[in-house]
Specification:
single chain; alpha+beta; 48% helix; six-stranded antiparallel beta sheet; Phosphorylase Kinase, domain 1; Aminoglycoside 3'-phosphotransferase, Chain: A, domain 2; 326 residues
Length: 326
């Protein structure tokens, strides 16, 4: 048995999982490697695959059905599910697993640093929305509706609970202004409810971070990892995408206007209110405190650059959108 195991993994667990797969899969496997929690790559004699875990069998089946419909309707920029189990489902230690196509990554990995990538990611996301609009009705009962206001109210509450720790690292004046931005944004979103509940209904990806775009060896860009899909309207994904690329635009509203697929939304008050919410700062502080990674010097430097280092640029950006929203 040849196994490559990340150092942060549980060797005994990996050995048991490897043995289980050897018995349950219709193909012999040679090695298995942990990528992240409940996601592994494994190798047969000729092909690599991904093994992905799901907390429940219905969640797994929804994903399989969703990917199948995506492919059938013409969206080929994602992976396929493979039925490799002799007796499905694969169920190991309270987790249901499915086998996915392994996409060979390019040496030129996808990041939001390059404008080419920022534009191409928007194109893939736009195509994804157009395709899911065709079959969104099929998932009316199996997918939750996306609720922007509820999500950010919850994120804000967690951030407020973490303030005793955050105050050790960030000046009171900056924290107070972040909270002003959040309050302005949440109240505005509440007033502009119609913007977030109207338009053509699609299936939202829900996590358009750079790591969920994969550039493959043949230079195609794929969209992956659909764990947070929900029912909603395209501007919710576009808002999240815009928030993701803004740090790489140095919080320049002028740069933002140059994106054809974003520009129309900049005339919508609801979208502007959404851009005012410090979602990345709240998200990353909440995660760092939950995982205690704020105690690591490297990760703390990243947090402080996001919170303090970019503060003046963000402050100017906020003033612009506040003026435009009226």
């Amino acid at each position: 048995m040849n196994m490559r195991i990340n150092n942060d993994g549980d060797d005994l667990f990996h050995n048991r999982l490897f043995s289980y797969l050897q018995k349950q899969l219709a193909i012999p496997i040679e090695e298995i490697r942990r990528i992240r929690k409940q996601v592994f790559s494994f190798k047969s004699e000729t092909t690599d695959y991904i093994l992905k875990g799901f907390p429940t069998y219905p969640r797994l089946k929804v994903q399989e059905e969703f990917i199948t419909l995506l492919k059938q309707e013409g969206f080929d920029k994602t992976y396929s599910f493979y039925q490799l189990a002799k007796y499905p489902p694969l169920h190991f230690e309270n987790t249901f697993y499915s086998c996915l196509q392994y996409l060979q990554p390019s040496d030129d990995s996808f990041t939001f640093h390059k404008r080419k990538n920022q534009l191409e990611g928007l194109d893939v996301l736009d195509e994804f929305h157009k395709v899911t609009e065709k079959f969104v009705h099929h998932f009316q009962q199996s997918l939750p509706p996306f609720k922007q206001l509820e999500k950010w109210n919850e994120r804000t509450a967690v951030f407020l609970n973490h303030l005793p720790i955050i105050k050790y690292y960030v000046q009171k004046e900056i924290i107070n202004e972040l909270l002003v931005w959040a309050d302005w944004s949440l109240k505005g979103i509440q007033r502009e409810t119609h913007f977030f509940t109207s338009g053509k209904k699609v299936i939202l990806h829900g996590d358009v971070a750079h790591h969920n775009f994969l550039r493959t060896k043949n230079n195609e860009l794929f969209l992956i990892d659909f764990d947070l899909i929900s029912l909603g309207f395209p501007h919710s994904d576009i808002l999240q995408y815009t928030n993701r690329i803004l740090p790489y635009l140095r919080w320049s509203f002028h740069e933002l206007v140059s994106f054809d697929k974003i520009r129309p939304f900049l005339h919508e008050k609801g979208f502007l209110f959404g851009l005012g919410y410090p979602t990345d700062i709240f998200r990353e502080w909440n995660r760092a405190i939950r995982e205690k990674s704020y105690l690591e010097q490297g990760k703390m430097q990243i947090l402080l650059e996001m919170t303090v280092g970019q503060f003046k640029e963000r402050q100017e950006f906020f003033k612009q959108i506040q003026y435009l929203a009226g």
